[in-house]
Each structure stands twice: as structure tokens, then as C-alpha cells.
Amino acid sequence: MDPFSQLIFVISVTSFLIFQWLFHKGSPWVSKRISPGFLSLSDKQKVEWNSRTVSTFHAILVGIFCLCILLFDDAVNEDPVWGDPTLVKINVAITTGYLISDLLLIFYYWKAIGDKFFVIHHVAALYAYYYVLVSALLSNSRTCRQDGKETTKSEQLRPPTLGLPIQHYQIHTYHTDMRKARGQGMLPYFANFRLLAEFSTPCVNQRWFFEVLGYPKTSRPNMANGIAMAAVFFMVRIAVMPVYYTRMYGVYGTEAFYLVPWGGRVAWICSSICLDIMNIMWMHKIARGCYKVLRSARQSNAAKPQENGKTD
Hints:
It holds the Pfam family TRAM_LAG1_CLN8. The chain has helices spanning about 5-35, 45-70, 75-80, 85-110, 110-115, 115-135, 135-140, 155, 175-180, 190-195, 200-210, 220-240, 240-250, 255-260, 260-305; strands at about 145, 150. It is an all-alpha fold.
């Protein structure tokens, strides 16, 4: 395993340990000091509170990192399939550690925070991120032969041919030195783009915090957060779909696309569709809830008597 791959492994393990510590120690210590209502929660509510606190921290950290890559990493934006994956891999490694940590907590505290949709979401994401972080590293260590001759080290670092003529690799020779140092970079733009969705997580979690602390749904903080939640969720999970799938369609059928192993293509396309189906379902629920709260607030204001004793 090359030094960069070792670094990615260390980041993933460290991420897992940090998020476990935040759940068990960090969140309870901070929460009881900034929110007195935390102490009055039931044990199940405290479990979900800590889970959502960790989720919010992860979303802010990874979301900012993701946005910086999207705005300033020219290598990834110019070559979405085989661009330099260095920063993307670091960000995905952090998310991988979090997803594994959260998945274990979901199973362990199933009665408190168990949700089959979150399990599907986490598994689908981990399956896709496997091809960003791990599969290429394993494929690089295999010994392969072409035309009865053992390949050179640089040839071993090439992705599978999938029956394509060897000439198709010539335009990708510049990737060889990069893969020697960092392992094969696969679909970095798309892996990073999916992480934009994390920006909606803090508002979703804050809605639950307000609810468990007893804030009325029609209170100003709750309504402001609800509107922000619906707007941000729509922007980073729904409105970006045309951009994402247009870029995917633009890559489909190209030489770069066929250089991605079959399993990587399945992980990329199927997990994207699966996650976006769930995003549409969640957006529908959020929109309905937001509409009901706004309508309830409007009716409540209409029923209040004016200073002259009349109603609006």
C-alpha cells in the first residue's frame, strides 16, 4: 500500500474514532452546558440528540470541504471521471468514517434511532465510496498479463480494458504517474458532488431539536428554520439533479466512461438513482410539512383579535 493510501486509511479510522467520541462524550458534555433542556430528555431522546449533533458537525465540515473542491479544484472539474482525486479522497475518507460510525450506532441503538431508510442510504453511499477509495488500490496490486506477457508496473496501474484496444489508453497516460503516487482516481467529481447534500442536514436536525425541546411549530425560530430547511434541501438535493445527471450523460459512452470498471459504473449510477429517489421522497414530506405549518400559522394569526376587538 502506497503512502497516500495509508494516509487515506488512517483518515478513515481517525474519522470513525472521532465521531464515536463525539457521540459518547463530546455531544453530551457540550449539550448540557448550552441547552438546559437536554438534561430533561429521556434516554432514547438523548441518544438521538447526540446522533444528530454529530451528524450536524459532520455535515458542516464535509459540506464546506466539498464546496471548496467544487469551486477551486480545476483538475476534478475538468476531468470528472479521472481527475486528480487527492482532495476528494480525503473528504470521502472523512465521510466514510462517519457513515460506518453512524451505521454501527443505528444498529446498536435501533429502538431509539433505527430507520431502514437511513440504513439503505448509508449502505448505498458506502458502496459507491468503496470504488473511490478502495477498489482501485486493490486492483493496482494484482499481477496481470496481456498477450501472454507479464505487464510492467505502469501497465498494472491501468484500469481494466473491458475489451477496448490498447490505443484507447494513450490519451490517459498522464494518469500513470498520479496512480503510482495515490492509487487510481475514479469518479472524483461525482463523489464530491454528492456531498453537497450535506448542507441540508443542519436544518433538518435543528427542526428535531426544536421539536424535542417543546418549541411550538408556529414559533418564529421553528418557522424560520422550517423555511430554510425546505429551501436548502431543495437547492442542494433536488435543484442540482439536472446539473448532476447532465454531467453524467455527457460522460456516458466516452472512453473515460468505459475505463471505469463495471462494478464502479454500477455503484455510481445505481447508488445515485437510489439516493435521489429517497431525496425526492424526503423533499415531498418536507414540503408538505412546511405548507401545513405555514397554513396553520396564517390561520392562527387570522383568528387573533385586533385592538378594536374585531378579527382580521
